[in-house]
What does this fold into?
Amino acid sequence: MTAYAIAHVRSVELGPGILEYLARIDATLEPFGGRFLVHAPKERRAVEGEWDGDAIVIEFPGMAEATAWWDSPAYREILPLRTQHMAADIVLVPGVPAGYRAAEALDGLR
It folds into this structure.
């Protein structure tokens, strides 16, 4: 089942560090089947509440791959380039199976 790395980016300090991070991140994703689905789009529409910042969504084949990427030496090497120049909240979450319906969540709530 797919998994996702989701980031709500609150601020970015553009400069050499973040540019190097962007140049190197794709190579860290490839061994784990990761690919960007959303990457700080210029067009966005807040339909409820406020949305300050940007959104990033990276898809992985599963939670094992997402976690392995996050913990990988290659990603850990470039992580300071991001954390020193970006404020963000990041979560790794599993997706739902094909055909999932929201009503299925009721089973766990009863």
Q: What stands out?
A: Strands lie at 3-12, 35-39, 54-60, 86-94. The chain is about 35% helix and 30% strand. Helices lie at 16-29, 63-71, 73-83, 105-109.
